[in-house]
Every structure is written in C-alpha cells, then in structure tokens.
Design a protein that fits this description.
globular; three-stranded mixed sheet; 337 residues; single chain; alpha/beta; 11 helices; seven-stranded parallel sheet; 12 strands
Length: 337
Amino acid sequence: MPGVLRYLVTGGAGFIGSNFVRHLLGHPGRNHQVTVLDALTYAGDLRNLAGLPETRLTFVHGDVADPDVVTPLVAGADVVVHFAAESHNDNSLNDPAPFIRTNLTGTFTLIEACRRYGKRYHHISTDEVYGDLELDDPARFTESTPYQPSSPYSATKAGSDMLVRAWVRSFGLRATISNCSNNYGPYQHIEKFIPRTITNVIDGIRPRLYGAGRNVRDWIHVEDHSSAVLRIIEAGRIGQTYLIGADGEQSNAQVVAAILRLMGRPPGDYEQVTDRAGHDLRYAIDATRLRTELGWRPRYTDFTAGLAGTIAWYQRNEDWWRPAKAATEARYALSGQ
C-alpha cells in the first residue's frame, strides 16, 4: 500500500490502539495521517497520545456504534483499523450490555460504512474467541481452530469476527482479521493483570492471584503487536485471518513471581483469591502463517526483559496511573479480588 495514507483508528486512545498510533506515526519512511475515534470510556485516555505530532494526528470524541459519527470519518479515510472494544472479562460478567454495543454494533457500523465507500478495513480480535486449551495439551490455536468463546467478552468478539467474514464473502469487503494473544507494555489500564500487579507492588500491597495461578497466557509486547498489525495491513491477503503471537506462554503464577523478583520482593509474596467464573485454562498462539507468509518476527523475544521495561515505565509514570488506582482497587474489593 504505497504512498501517504489516511488512517482511521478506532479505540486509538486505549492501550493497544494508542501504541499502534505511536508505532504508525513514529515509523520512519511513513508519513501517514491518523484520525483517532475514541469514546474515552474509563480505559481511554488522551494522555496516551501526548507528544505525537499534531499536524498528523486528529482526535474525534465519539461512539463507534453511532453511524452519524462513523460514516463521515470512514468516508475520509483510506484504511480503517478497528481496535475499539470492551475487553475486560470480569466487567463482561458483571454487565454484558456495553460489550454487545461496542463489540457487535460498533463493528457492524464500521463495516457497513467501509462497504459503502469501498475502504480497506482491518479488524483487531483476540485469541479468546477460541476458548481454551488443556494445560498439558501440546496444541496451539491456529487460524482453523473452531470458535468456542466462554465469556460475554469473547462471545462478542467472536461474533464481530464472523460479521467481518460474512461482509467479505457477501459484499466483497476488503478486510483482514488478526487474533492476538495477551498484550503487555506501557499505557495499559491498571485493572489488567500485569499493571495491577506492578502497581500493587509499588504501593506495598501483596498482588492477587486467581486460584492456584496455573492458568497460562501467551504474552506479547504491545510494540510487537503493533508491528504485526501494520505488516498485515500493508501485505496481508484480503479475506485472510492472521494469528499474532510471540511464543510467550507463561502461567499467571510465573508472571507474578517474575514481577516480584524484578521488583525486589520474594516470588511467593502474593495472595490467592477465588478463581474467576469460567476462567480459561490456557491460550497458545501458532503464528506460523504470519511469520512464513508475511515474514514478520517479534522483537521482544525475552519476556523477562520486556517485563522489566514495563515495570520501569509504571515506576516512571505514577502520575499517569495513580488517579485511577483507588477506584480500581475498590471495584475489585467488592468482589473479593
């Protein structure tokens, strides 16, 4: 996709979306223009975009499920990248309604506008649509793994993936899909596992661990996710799905222990809390198609090194996460977590 392109990035003030915007605007040799559409719910923050070139970045405050907002933005774009999503499993169990609106209605609104104006569309999804694997299963998720979502969050993401596939087949939508493993890195809201653990340790609070902590996640640094998404947009085959992963399988207990060690605390200095309902056992990504077909490789291949850098970011940026800390912990306390 040569030349300077106009990107519309939904959810671009959130964790993964803002990191993609930073990657896109900071990439040498690409002078793209970016419009960010974000509703600025609790997980979106304009500070995530601070310091980016104002001449190349436009921010629009709006709802991705509102066609009056979305349609003119899509009409003025060359590429639409859909990051906007309600994504916290615990929140989806407490109130699924926002997940239906953002993840399903929002996707429908975008792809209808892209169909109308013939725009290139890339859909960001998750490995959670595949359900989970047994802890001792050598298999990994591939692009042909059947969908078996287990929470309202993953069910709505699975539904949005299916909408995109149907629009490709029925209407010729020029779209690709990526399903990624768990991201970590800077600008992640402190309700999430890794930043919550880090900020608890900073505050002298023992980290919490669901159940025995045996559940396994396949971790990828958010910068690697960004580079993979850009590679798919620029070189991926229309109608294709690509799984994004960096061979980063770690149990939750291993992650907590690593954070504690890196922060000078005993690796067993955490509290076990009641396990989450429907807690998936293991995620594992086979990214062979992405690596062989598009030649993509992760940069952060050492999880401990990436984790150390993430810890350092939260230590340096207390003013970014501190305002939300008390309210986040109060919400968890209500559920005993």
